[in-house]
Amino acid sequence: MSWLAVLLIGLALADLTHSVRPVRILPECIGAVGAVLVGLCAGLTEWRDLVALVLIALAVLAWGQTVTSGFAGRIPAWVPLAVLAIPVGLAVGFAGQAGAADGLVGDWLGGTPIPVLQGVDADRALVVAGAFAVQLSTGNVVVRLVLAATDTVNPARHGQVDDPEMQLKGGRLLGPMERVFILGLALAGQVTAASIVVAAKGLLRFPELSSRRDQERIHLLTEYFLVGSFVSWLVALSSLVLLHS
């Protein structure tokens, strides 16, 4: 699963960089370079691995460019979702062809004093790191793209007064937090606790949704909340499936 891990880390780096400093083309370049460096540090230096690293870098660049165009309305929102799904699917499908991660990452894991990482192989450590990293910002990007693709929100109105995200504040912070909690609790075998996190979000948002006097606005915000929440949970659950694949 080393190729999948490197891909997830590259995507996460690109989206995290964009959330901090949204400079044109810089985030995806940082993500692509970061993915290649992680792969090389993990000892992925066989010819098949090097070809895969180049393709991963191109996939990260394509993701960043199509996301920008999708949010700007220049291309349909489903296009970047396809750009994401195809390389992830290929990375899973060709996981058996990937070289085993080791190198500097393996050396560090072998000598780490952190108890939870002792005895963990480099492949597993990288894919877990990638899975958690995509929860932080990539998950938010996926949610916004699905909301746009389903016409739940208009990307051109993002950040304006009539944007549902402006009505239900804190979503961009609560989303990553809940996904990290769900993934972490599920990996720890605490599925019941993860379901409590899901239920708690609904209870927290209910007063905001029910306080509106305009029924049309209530329906719009409810649709936004339900679609966004389910997609956000699916991002976390999909990552869990990848970790167990």
What is the molecular shape?
globular
Largest sheet: none
Structural class: mainly alpha
Count of individual helical segments = 11
**Cα-atom radius of gyration:** 19 Å
Name the helicity range.
over 70%
Distance between the termini: 9 Å
- Poorly predicted sequence stretches spanning 5 or more consecutive residues: none
Q: List the domain count as a whole number.
A: 1
Taken in chain order, the helices and strands follow as HHHHHHHHHHH
Strand content: under 5%
Instruction: Quote the average pLDDT.
Output: 85
Notes on the protein architecture:
The chain has about 240 residues and is mainly alpha-helical. The protein has one domain. The chain is built from 11 helices and no strands. It has helices at about 1-20, 25-40, 45-70, 80-95, 105-110, 120-135, 140-150, 165, 170-185, 190-210, 215-245. α1 packs parallel to α6, α3 packs antiparallel against α4 and α9 (about 170-185) packs parallel to α11. The longest helix has 29 residues, at about 215-245. The termini are close together.
